[in-house]
Amino acid sequence: MPLSVKHILGARDLTRKDIETILTSAESFCELSRRPIKKAPALRGKTVVNLFFEPSTRTRTSFEIAGKRLSADVINISGSTSSAVKGENLIDSARVLEAMNPDILIIRHSDSGAPHLISKHVKCRIINAGDGSHEHPTQALLDLLTLQQNKGRLEGLTVAIVGDIANSRVARSNIFAMKTMGMKVRVAAPPTMIPDQMESMGVEVFHNLEDALVDVDAVMMLRIQSERQEGSPYPNLREYSNLFCLTQEKLKRSRKDMVIIHPGPVNRGVEIALDVMQGPRSIILNQVTNGVAVRMALMYLLLGGNDEVDH
Asked: Residue 125 — very low, low, confident or very high, per pLDDT cuts 50/70/90?
């Protein structure tokens, strides 16, 4: 089943059918990643360029592994080694790369809208690997896959997203994707970290973590993104942590089957306590594993893959 979009620029663009197709394909690639030989020839002869203008370990590595497991030629370019440091603008950089005929450009940039801008000037497929405070669609898709595997469904689940909602591209993409899939979303944070339009998006707003955790199926803890904040939205980090760090004490009113996810990287003791992060409810490492499968599925589907995974 082909996707309704040419590029993966945001979760907001994806239909329910798109998301179901991506998750179904990703499940097949999860199985491939468990084989002794983790390789399929689906993208043999294709070229994937990771163009990362922002630091990243897990997302860039995840895309690189995904491309290589599908036998694509994968090229990694970071902002510090690109011609951007010599003054070349973003569009010219993209056009130069396209002249070398890549099939997919994967772009992470600190400016919101950078992947959208590039998509208007090149012919190859674009995947947004995170743009500013805007969207991080592949993270949202791997979060959905992880919850679906754990809960057996998505429709009707209630998820609380906790932390720096205002600056989180992960939160924004997850809200779009979760609402599309019929899930209920809550956000919890100090008022200064929640945008005004949240309730108009059909999202419940809480300013008390314990209240937000009552009767939810999953909680997503977010990292404090100090690099995106203009001034501090809270008096100090200790006060924020006292109120919103997920601890065993704060979990007492939650359901026993509630699971914990986190997009990473984790600030231990700030947004989540170490014993909670490593406890039985945490499925954080499952998210990392599923990230490779979701990115394999996206590359495969964007390039029109119709073959069986087991080639």
From this structure: very high
